[in-house]
Amino acid sequence: AQTVTQSQPEMSVQEAETVTLSCTYDTSESNYYLFWYKQPPSRQMILVIRQEAYKQQNATENRFSVNFQKAAKSFSLKISDSQLGDTAMYFCAFAPIYGNNRLAFGKGNQVVVIP
Amino acid sequence: ETGVTQTPRHLVMGMTNKKSLKCEQHLGHNAMYWYKQSAKKPLELMFVYSLEERVENNSVPSRFSPECPNSSHLFLHLHTLQPEDSALYLCASSLQVPGDGDYGYTFGSGTRLTVV
């Protein structure tokens, strides 16, 4: 079974600053997807960014980028130029490409952007 | 809206009531999921339907009964629940087999369930 670990329970960041969330995972799979999801107070779980493990290039999506270290099984999320709308719980998630492709989630990180 | 719609948004029910949660998607996805989200816990996968067939039931008590009448609709029937079942129940959908590039789960906004 896959496990996903997020160890920073709550983080505050000033508007326009940068914040980095860490995530590690444990798997014996070689091909998989990694995701960061955002859950604002509206409760909608929104996909922020996705990384395919077979791609060496780190994914970026506007102000969101990841640092994917496959050997270390590490997948951190960087939020640049933080905005008030970035305030949310952020969940790291893992899904193998083959076989049981269920999403396994970490416990989440609360990010609060301060004006 | 992401394309996955859940109703009702809020539900308060007594322990002897019977109610149902509904989930609907028109994204062309062929797998649907129920998750339970409790405070301070990771999301718990409850049920998985793939091509309208239940393929996974993660030791969920029988007071939760899922139903998937077609690939676009998923229900969670509730009866004789306990206060510890109070949580946010999230529905999600995806393609059964990941394609290239755009694989991922799409979630609804959830039903906030309170059992009194």
- The secondary-structure element order of chain A is EEEEEEEEEEEE
Q: What is the beta-strand fraction of chain B?
A: over 45%
Portion of residues within helices of chain A: under 10%
| Average pLDDT over all residues of chain B | 88
Shape of chain A: globular
Largest interface, per-chain counts?
A-B, 21 and 24 residues
How far apart are the termini of chain B?
30 Å
- Which structural class best describes the helix and strand composition of chain B? mainly beta
DSSP, total strands of chain B: 11
Residue ranges of chain B: pLDDT <50 for 5 or more in a row? Answer: none
CA gyration radius of chain B, whole angstroms: 14 Å
Number of strands of chain A: 12
What fraction strand of chain A? over 45%
What is the helix tally of chain B? 0
The span between the termini of chain A is 41 Å
Largest sheet of chain A: 6 strands, mixed
Rg of chain A, Cα atoms, Å: 14 Å
* Derived structural class of chain A: mainly beta
Brief account:
The complex is a heterodimer of chains A (115) and B (116). Chain A has 115 residues and is mainly beta.
